[in-house]
Amino acid sequence: MNAWELIIQQPLINVLIVVSHAFADNFGLAIIALTILVNLAMLPLTLSQIRSTRAMQEIQPKLAELQKKYGKDRQKMAQEQMRLYKESGIKPAGCALTFLIQMPVWIALYQAIMLTLAVAPEGLLNLSRYLYSWDTLFPLLPLNRDFLVMDLSQPNFILAILVGATMWIQQKMSATTTPADAKQAQQAQLMLWMMPMLFGVMALSFPSGLSLYWVASSVFRIILQYRVSGWGGLRRQKPKQTEAEKKYIKFDAAVQKKSTDDIGADIVVTDSSKPGAAVTRPERTRYQPGKDRAPKRRKK
Amino acid sequence: MKPKRNWLNKIPFVVAAVLAVGLVAVGCVGGMAPVGWSGGTVSGGTLYVGSSEGQLVAVNLTDESRRWSEQLQATSRPGLFGCAAGGSTAVAIYGSPVVVGDLVYIAGYNGKIYAYTAATLSSRWVFPREGYFEPFVGGLVAGGGKLFVGGSDGKVYALDAATGDKLWEFTTGDKIWATAAFYENTIFEGSGGQFTNEDTLFIGSFDKKLYALNANDGTKKWEFTTGGAIITTPLVFDSTIYVGSFDRTLYALRAADGVEKWRFTGNNWFWAQPAVWKGVIYAGNLDGNVYALDAENGGKVAEFQTGPLSAAPVVVDDFVVFAAKNGAVWKIDTASREMAKITDLVAEVDGPLATSDGDVYIHAQGTSLYRINIGSGERRLITLKSGE
After folding, report:
1. For residue A178, what are the domain limits?
2. Which domains, from first to last, does chain B contain?
3. Quick check: A149 and A184 in contact, CB under 8 A?
4. Contacts of B118 (CB under 8 A, 6+ apart)
5. Domain for residue A267, yes or no?
6. A263 belongs to a structural domain
7. Any residues with CB less than 8 A from the CB of B190 and at least 6 apart, and which?
8. Residues 45-74 (B) with a CB less than 8 A from some CB of A
9. Within-domain flag for A182
10. Does the complex come out with an ipTM higher than 0.90?
11. pLDDT class for A205, splitting at 50, 70, 90?
């Protein structure tokens, strides 16, 4: 048995069997219970991830502005981007770290469920090597795989639909703002549909015990997302002016003498190919990278 | 001017693709797809075995050539990612073939039982004739002109060996993955001077019970409840039944009435059928030990460390031969109680061993069949791969 199996898989499998027995040999309830338990254990990480995602979405207009402003100067762009992250309280490395910690746990739980399901005879035989030498554990196998009207070892169409639906709802809720850039908006829309559809199709091929785990996970995150940011992107939003338009209006009000045709004037462009080119300083009312304060936090 | 494409925009798609591929890769954990672990059966110089390609293969043991093979018909298409239950195009075969007279029989995971003519492999009959039953994991057993098999639907079926007609069925409380044991017993009743057929079928079920059924009509003679599911083929010896259970215990029961004689507990499941030689039971356990127990009282005679065992052993001369899951093949000298390693196959072995003329045949994982001479330790590989 390798380290991964010994430290991660084996404990999870044994806990899963014991929990199943605690729920009157109902493996379906055991999957739901363990999914909730693992989610609760990772709650601080998940919350931090949700907040980071939200903050990231909130600074999207500013990032777009930076892109326009320093698009050609990558170094400056990166510096300003980092400054913006810092001021907004976002730690990009923290997001990645959270993801890196969560992923193995999800994979382990996923594998534990698949192994414990012991779909084929080889699976049941293989399971014997993961069992702790607890007296009560051995007679509990093979687990009862019936849950409601489903056989958890077989794919289930309704659960596959639920996998896609709950995943879509969760993703839609987490998307609180629509990217100003049309391309990005299109991409976000594509992602919103692609992942749920992908998982839905996969669920049609995997044992429904795994689908149950995916549904339970998504429902948990939906509840969490609702507690943090309400219905988010799921609520029908009134058409708003894009951030770019807002900036333009602000700028237009401040610089009265400028022509309305000169929309690009609010962006400082440094073109080294034209020495001595006039540089228009932006007005204080607009966002100034590195000088603006972090946006006000939402009252809790 | 054409705007430059930002590769960063593609990151979400790359992440999604990697996630999907990763999930599929880690999702296909071991034991998801049924492969099979059929052992071999030797009859008239031919070895019959179910291959991992879903074929019944007949090997001529004289020159180790393939006499013929027949593909079992698959019921369903594999899952999209090959991870779903039954997700294989080949029919998994777990039970060893059975040869009676000129017919060879085999049960498939596709829920069908096939009878072929042993000489030419022409199909004689199939059961059920239409459709498919739940998967058959346990093998067939023959006796008294009948064939007996337990199915994943929890039923024991008795078929006419010649025609494949169903004679009777008996329903247990859960799935049956065990092979039955047939006990031929004709009693002479003194006063009337009549012979009474008392043939009995012993079979275990996931409902934790061992059933003793009248082999003639399927009526229950008795049942014995253990502490766990039963997957082991019972061993019948000297009017006693020896059967292992998932409660890690090997039970010795009186064949006549199911009264417990003794029990012995190991550290893991007794998965494989035990062997008996000269009043000693040799029972392999998944805890990595072979326990030698006194057949009369269950007292431990000796213990041998072989590695986890799921394959039923065979007795060759005065040796009991075991193959551990990791492919190590051991022989235990029943006289001196000494154990020696014969060879290391470096391949997983789960199916029961077969023997003929001092050779042991081991069907290892994949398409390899090994022929091992117990005396010399010589090992020969016979491939079961089609086209070779």
Report:
1. 3-131+142-234
2. 33-137 (2.40.10.480), 142-265 (2.40.128.630)
3. no
4. B43, B44, B46, B48, B58, B99, B102, B103, B104
5. no
6. no
7. none
8. none
9. yes
10. no
11. confident
CB-based contact A129 B286, cutoff 8 Å: yes
pLDDT digits (tens, 9 = 90+) for B59-98: 999 999 888 888 887 765 444 444 444 445 689 999 999 9
Question: Which residues in chain B come in under a pLDDT of 50?
Answer: 1-8, 77-87
Residue recorded with tokens 């089609």: B386
Start-to-end CA span in chain A (Å) = 48
* Count of structural domains within chain A: 1
Cβ pair B310:A125 closer than 8 A: yes
pLDDT tens for residues A49-91? Answer: 777 777 777 777 787 788 778 777 888 888 888 888 888 777 7
Identify which of A122, A128, A191 has the shortest CB distance to residue B286. A128
**Contact at CB, A122 and B31, closer than 8 angstroms:** yes
Which among A114, A138, A194 has the least Cβ separation from residue B32?
Answer: A114
Token pair for residue B182?
Answer: 């047939």
Chain A residues with CB-CB distance to B244 below 8 A? none
User: Across the beta sheet with B354-356, what order do the strands follow?
Assistant: B354-356, B359-363, B368-373, B379-383
Asked if the Cβ–Cβ distance from B37 to A155 is below 8 Å, we say no
* Residue A282 maps to a domain: no
From chain B, the residues in CB contact with A207 under 8 A are 84-85
Mutual angle of helices A43-58 and A208-229, in 10-degree steps:
60
Q: Which of residues 211-250 of B touch A (CB under 8 A)?
A: 227-229, 231, 245-248
